Amino acid sequence: MTDLTLTNPTFDTNAPKFGSGALNGGYGATPTVLITQASDFTIEVWVKAASAPGAFGVIGGQGNALYFRHETNGNAGLYIGNTPNATVDLGVSISDGLWHHLEAHVDFSTDTVRAYVDGVEVYNTTFTTNHVANMTFDRPFTLRTVALSSGAGSYQFNGAVDGAAVWDGLRHTAGFTPSSAAYAGDEAGLIALWQLDSDGVDTAGATAEAEPDYVEITPDDAGLVYSPYTWDIGATQAKSITPGAYIRANFTGDACTLTFDPSGPYAPNRIKYRIDGQAWVYAVLDTEIICEMPEFTALAPSHTLELVFSAIRVTDGRWATQQPALKFTGLRLPVGASLGTARQHDRRVLFLGDSITEGIRTRGGTDAGSAHDAQLSWSWQLGAMIGAEFGNVGYGSLGINALGTGNVPVIGTSWNQMWDGLARDFTTPPDLVVVMIGANDGGNDTTAGWTTFLDDMLAQLPGAMICVIKPFSGSRSAQSGFIQSAIAASAAPERVIYLDGDYFALSHSVDSLHPYGWENIANIAPALADAILPVLNGPGVAPLVTQLQAQDRVTLTRDGAVQAIDLAGLQGYLDSLAG
């Protein structure tokens, strides 16, 4: 229950809508943020005003997300979103001295806002960009005012409010008749209820049913498999700032609930999961997400869960404060169910890149809530093809000399850090590091930066091979030359493979830059798998020849001496090794 803190309150005890009073002076605010994440919600309140105001007043709601206003023409109004936002005149006067019912909800699955006055739908708009996607959840819920960055108290409503409530989900999706009686407080889905008879006490849940029994699986349970190099795992939460990070689990029982901490203004608004290899399900991030169990595998003795951090919503504060992080807090299983042992691949791969690796616009469009999906990126698909556990680390705009979005340091500084102040854990080092970067460096000479970057990886990961893929955008020819010069100048060029093929040359894209997910699945990832599997499989003449098929010239080492040869002379060189 979340009581309102009231400031200079007065109550109308003569003609309230319900009970013994209605708040008609001062204002109320919750002590903390009430609506904490982008999950469907509904707000409602009864209002009474005698006349139109000289300046608009705020009736109630949550700043930077959704609240009701009293417009200067006397009509009810609605404020939606945060930078940019929408201010809507609902077209119905509430300035006649009578009680009026206001209700509005946000449907995040469709980015739709609906509003009702006295049960009549007066607003129904789907936003293709901004507004809903840009809502932030960092302000208290207020009545008769709005909470600004400087605090509550501004734009006070010149009227009375009563029977204010906040609901989980969509209370109504069509016209309705507002209740003629006060809510009891035990209604399903009720988050908060303020009767406002003489105080700000929240009476929601007064007679709510007890929490059902379940088995709690904590995020540090040894039975959970996490993508390597992408999670900070603790007893209460596992946190990641890199889309493409995944979790896998094997469990018994007939149900599974995912739990998260969705607090913070920039928490991701969607994740994706699947059960038993069935279709992927996109889900709006919430404290709890009840998985849809497939009927096809209902009788299986155990089930496999796969969860993917599909997209970051915004990048503000990603590196310094991790505000957009996904925070996984565990699983809930039915009583009697248990977590088994999920199979793991022995090999480890680390992918490093920019927005192409991050999965930007793999689903088309530009809206951060629906256009991006790292699970559809070239690197994620490649990782799934080559039989390895893999970490997918990509930051938009990143380069040798270019900062990544969210103020991520250049790749030579950020590659071995989870975020500011936390080193990436290489206790189990990767067998292979795959790097595809360079499009954001333009024509700038990056030879020195690449050499330092490569030497750093070679030193910190002494058992790993490094594979660098030719950049496919920007000043490609220039960066290709800088990269090859850096490899030759590195401390161990024999451990660095350069793939010079045009793997992305035919990619289809929404913006002539970021490949569609289907292109990655059908063409790009399979072609790269053919080139990279031999590197991962280790030494040998046959794998080596396969690995080098896409190249014109290769660098090999014999007895510590580096020798560059054309493919035409490869067989002779191999014969000399055999001799």
Outline of this structure?
The chain has 579 residues and is an alpha+beta fold. It has 8 helices and 35 strands.
Please describe the structure with a list of short key phrases separated by commas or semicolons:
579 residues, alpha+beta, Jelly Rolls, Rossmann fold, six-stranded antiparallel sheet, 8 helices, 14% helix
Give a verbal description of the structure:
With 579 residues, this protein is of the alpha+beta class. It folds into three domains: 5-194, Jelly Rolls (Sandwich); 211-344, Sandwich (Jelly Rolls); 349-579, SGNH hydrolase (Rossmann fold, 3-Layer(aba) Sandwich). The protein has eight helices and 35 strands. α4 crosses α5. It is elongated and about 105 Å long. Mean pLDDT is 89; it is low at 207-211 and 540-550.
CATH fold field value of the largest domain: Rossmann fold
Task: Please state how the strands of the largest beta sheet are arranged side by side.
Answer: 1-2-11-4-5-6-7
Q: Which residues sit in consecutive blocks of at least 5 with pLDDT less than 50? A: 207-211, 540-550
Assigned CATH class of the largest domain: Alpha Beta
How helix-rich are the residues, as a percent range? 10-25%
* Main sheet summary: 7 strands, antiparallel
Query: What is the total number of structural domains?
Result: 3
Taking all Cα atoms into account, the compactness measure Rg is: 29 Å
Number of helices: 8
Q: What is the terminal separation in angstroms?
A: 81 Å
Outline type: elongated
